[in-house]
Amino acid sequence: MGGDLRRPSTNGETYMNKLIIRAICAALLTSFSSQVLATPAIEVLGRDFTFPNHVEGVPGKLSDFKGLQINSFETNDGARLCYWEAGEGRPIIFVPGWRANGAEYVNVMFLLSKK
Description:
alpha+beta
């Protein structure tokens, strides 16, 4: 143990660092949820959206995903962070990779929100 915390030396430490970051993100979203007004996705985007490459069993259009909301909050340093929310229960956080966006998770969100 010990060592440089900025550069994990083992896969276990890397996993632990990722786990800590995810826990912090979940705590932030949970703590801000009472200060955030949820808005239906169609209102936020200003129009309906048809998803390309429709897959049977998931929404073909944004309006088909009832209960999908887009929320945002402002951080202490003035950055505006947005997140999509659907379903009930404990939150699951999807973090898109570089040059990706949260819309890539719409089908997964739809299926999980039904459980």
